[in-house]
Specification:
The chain is an alpha+beta fold. It has one domain. It is 14% helix and 13% strand. It has two helices and four strands; from the N terminus they run ββββαα. The strands form two sheets. The chain has a two-stranded antiparallel sheet with strand order 1-2. Strands 3-4 form a two-stranded antiparallel sheet. Strand 1 and strand 2 form a beta hairpin. It starts with 14 loop residues before the first strand and ends with a helix.
Length: 92
Amino acid sequence: MICATIKKDEECIFMTAKGCSYNDGFCREIVEQCKTCNNSVELQSGWYCSAYPEPALKWKNGNCNLASHITATSKKEKVKINPLKASKRGQR
């Protein structure tokens, strides 16, 4: 439904016929880590996340999984290979 509280005229999954069904009935503004994210939207009352109503909770335990400005990097460790086993594999 269309939001009638903070994100006026925006589509919101928490909006019902009785009003906003999210905690306290409104969305929270973005936190500092969200400033460069593609999901942040500027509205009349401030900056809000278009993907989640309370961005501070997403950053509480680490990086936000919806953040478009952060890329996950994996560490590749060099695995020690036993040279004897490697030579046997090469003979096959």
